[in-house]
């Protein structure tokens, strides 16, 4: 009797693929249908952001930080600006802080909507994708009213903001809050609690909490495994300590804590919490001048600063070294998606190809952030 | 009942040549407008407007798309098995079209009133498996072979719940002829098999069994035609696009043509079995709604509403994975259908 | 066994809910805006193509310095005194223009629409409009020249300034010489005045002074 020959098959889920969110290449090694090894190959979107930043002045770096994680521009800008303000030692007016928080939470909602929609699309449910994007249009409209751009804003400046908000913005934000709450329930009913979707995502790609902490995961990836760690509560920056919201954690409502469904559901829950923060902030914005603390020329003393913030994808932080001149000496961005993606090898072993697609979608990576 | 064409032309070869023509016309029209209907209905469900650039309702859209596909360059891979590669799409379509032979459009028009009609339908549509396998193998492409194998596994395993859930109606009627099914369910909506069929008051016991059978027949025929939620072999967010990869232009269109044709054929069968075929829901109360031409209307209306439900399901539900698909078939659908057959058998023993 | 039936119940229940949601959406109004027949009303702060009002531009180069991608290219030539720049020689705010702007090119293929050039402008002559439909078939079509002066005129102005500045240089050199001569004469006069008090001490330098210009 001849021996049955089994070999491992290497398949390339290439840079152009409808399900890798961006230009990511995964080299899969398969044994039949089961995955034994996943190697991500990065760098297809590298744009030398950190090197560019050394040639720009401090305010000129802000459009570049926008483009790092392009679905999430406000949070990127905020992290960089907080690091620069720490170097300069500027105190911004409270009105600026409130508006910044509102913008960042609106951006968090927009980013999570993309994550949820595209995750459903990978699973084969085409309709929730369009519902999420229709809701996202409303958020982008709000941003357009304030600063004129829909995706890459250049709004949060060192020491303040570029434009002040208008009463129209406040009115439309309140309308948006009323409109959006039932839409979260609708997306949950349509997608999150759908049995077929749960079968596709529950108990897949289980990330144990200790592995997550050791690998440096953060954000919903970490919270989906049951670890209650949110920088807005554990290391508050800006004025987050003034707001009342919960930290959403994957509890294993369906499946096991740490699987794809819980990572995904943490995002759906976080949208509700962001709405709560916006509600509390929008009614209490103090009066003030948003441009009073903006310096004419940004020339910090020599030194370094490091600020960590909670972006929708995880812990986004900037490390700036200044040598006393107009241009920074070094700007380093610590990207959350890069560290989150590093565990994909460990947690994909033993699952099928279709599951790898779902695991990748549950991390919610943006290649702009990973490759910078 | 004899076919109206044989009544006009006599029982000779001319009639038998003319009979498939209306059916072919209907299939072509249906496939064209089903694509448009799918795009429009999916758009309305997603708060969009579907195609409306060609004219206000997009009626010419599919025709223009077909023209575009006709003028595309036919790119075929390097070393294919040429005969099988070229024949495969046409075999798939032919197999599905042959299934239209036993659909009773009206009391005077059924292409071939075989007394093994239902059995013939399930066997002939299985020939499309051969076409898919040919396409998968002859494309000289590893991935299309994988896709083809998976499709074959899917279609063959879902034959069983299909046949078993149709068996319920076969047991109650005692015949396999499609025209007889439609004839038996006369007398208005409450004599349809979904409500227990013609019979006395004891048929109320049958109603839940019939609902479940119809639901399972619907689900398994969705899987037979590779529609979402069972379309993982042709989905583009899986690794590859399945059997259709190496086909371009008109041949590619043939596969889709075949899929939409099968959607209607399968809906026609479910209508005939459970929803009364061409019978009007008002029965003898309103006689003019019962004439031969109106019967065609009733048949088409019922089948098209089932096609609508198929489209509705496609745009709502996510996809199932291959192993979950098999689990569903073997562990859930087949046991339930066997239980159904058993219960109907007991009913027949007791009440007949 | 219980889980088996629970799975079936859950599947049917959640599928029915999902399908009812999509069914309801079928009857809602679509959100599509049929561009190009219908267009959205853009807000007033909309950031699309830049526009430069050359009447107000004083050629200060602040916008080019502020641009993070260096898409603005400005070349200026100094104004000869007495010449009027543009139509009136002043901006609409009354500021006097001291530079001809011979080349003001913005490359919209590079522009990242970040608005950083708008804020430093002292006369608010560069601003973002809401024009977003300006695609072209060639890349040259995206290089927008805002300057009023044609390249020939620009060359002319440069030549004029070059001549004027050469002239000024000559005049300066002459004036410097004259000033030096004047200074020498003054020194001489001073020396002569002192001479009346001490005639003999001053006679030697006096001779030297009077001889030097002759030699040169």
How many beta-strand segments of chain B?
A: 0
What is the number of independent domains of chain B? 1
CA radius of gyration of chain C is 37 Å
Average predicted local confidence, pLDDT of chain C: 82
Q: Which class best fits the helix and strand makeup of chain C?
A: alpha+beta
Q: CATH topology of the largest domain in chain C, anyone?
A: Alpha-Beta Plaits
What share of the residues of chain B does DSSP label as strand, in percent?
A: under 5%
Low-confidence stretches of chain B: none
- Tally of alpha and pi helices of chain C: 4
The oligomeric state is heterotrimer
Unreliable residue runs of chain C: 200-216
C-alpha end-to-end distance of chain C: 123 Å
The residue-averaged pLDDT of chain B reads: 86
Topology, number of strands of chain C = 5
Based on the model shown, name its key terms.
heterotrimer, A: 372 residues, alpha+beta, Cytochrome-c3 Hydrogenase, chain B, three-stranded antiparallel beta sheet, 8 strands, B: mainly alpha, 13 helices, 63% helix
What's this entry about, in short?
Chain A is α+β, with helices and mostly antiparallel strands and 372 residues long. Chain A has helices at residues 49-53, 62-66, 73-88, 94-123, 127-147, 167-192, 195-201, 209-215, 220-223, 231-234, 260-282, 336-341, 344-348, 353-363, 367-371; strands at residues 9-13, 25-31, 34-41, 156-157, 160-161, 303-311, 314-322, 330-334.
Fold and architecture overview:
The complex is a heterotrimer of chains A (372), B (352) and C (216). By secondary structure, chain A is α+β, with helices and mostly antiparallel strands. Chain A contains 15 helices and 8 strands. Chain A has helices spanning 49-53, 62-66, 73-88, 94-123, 127-147, 167-192, 195-201, 209-215, 220-223, 231-234, 260-282, 336-341, 344-348, 353-363, 367-371, and strands spanning 9-13, 25-31, 34-41, 156-157, 160-161, 303-311, 314-322, 330-334. Chain B is mainly alpha-helical and 352 residues long. Chain B has one domain (75-351). Chain B has helices at residues 4-9, 13-18, 20-45, 61-70, 82-98, 117-125, 127-138, 142-173, 178-184, 206-224, 250-274, 292-314, 322-351. The longest helix of chain B has 32 residues, at 142-173. Chain C is of the alpha+beta class and 216 residues long. Chain C folds into 2 domains: 41-149, Alpha-Beta Plaits, CATH 3.30.70.3270; 153-215. Chain C is built from 4 helices and 5 strands; from the N terminus they run αβαββββαα. The model of chain C is unreliable at 200-216 (pLDDT under 50). Chains A and B meet through helix 4, helix 5, helix 7 and helix 14 of A and helix 13 of B.
